[in-house]
Protein: Lipoprotein
Organism: Phormidium yuhuli AB48
Amino acid sequence: MRSKLFALFLALTVPLSLAGCAGDDTAEEPASPDAVEAPADQPTAEAPPAPGEMPEAAESPSDLGDWFTYEPPDGRYEIKFPNEPLEQNQSIPVSETEEIELSLAIYEDTSQGRAYMSGANPIPLPEGASFDVDQGLDGGRDNAAASTNSEVESEESINVEGLPGRAIVMRNPEGVRFKLMMLADSENAVLYQLLVGAQDGNLDFPEAETFFESFNLRQS
């Protein structure tokens, strides 16, 4: 069975792909907490998985060479996970005639109560519109907090491999804390998201830092 932490990760990532990022008057406001559920024809975060769908829990290796190097189907980036992640592919409707393909990789270390996630979300823009970095990052932050009923504890601007972004720490009422790194590729209208969560609220462990630092942009 998927844990509550795994389900929270799914709930958190969907709104990020829908955040308004167009730099013109056609951009939508970030979704409200009441609008973060998946459409009726899409699986919700709480849907039970097929047997054996979740990777086996394993202790995080001490040697980075033992980590699993993940690259998504589109080859945009690579990143190292403590163990092989589960790929979660979803088609997200963004209008009556358009949808985007969202590919996520999630690994959960159930023995430690920790989870790791990466994804690259293409942002559909109206014709003639440009990618508004601040609007996209603000929308991603607000929707992530709303979808997990979390409060933002801290936020700082970052720049990774030439991409502007945010490093955000959030906590939900159950004490689960998340560190979310969002990076905005304005040229290609893509929002990268890297996430680590801890059920005990402790995000200061070396594997988290190793995960974030292993991100490597392959396509821009």
Q: What stands out?
A: The mean pLDDT is 77. Residues 4-18 form the longest helix (15 residues). The chain has one domain: 4-217. Strands lie at 68-70, 77-81, 86-93, 99-109, 114-122, 151-160, 163-171, 177-185, 190-198, 216-217.
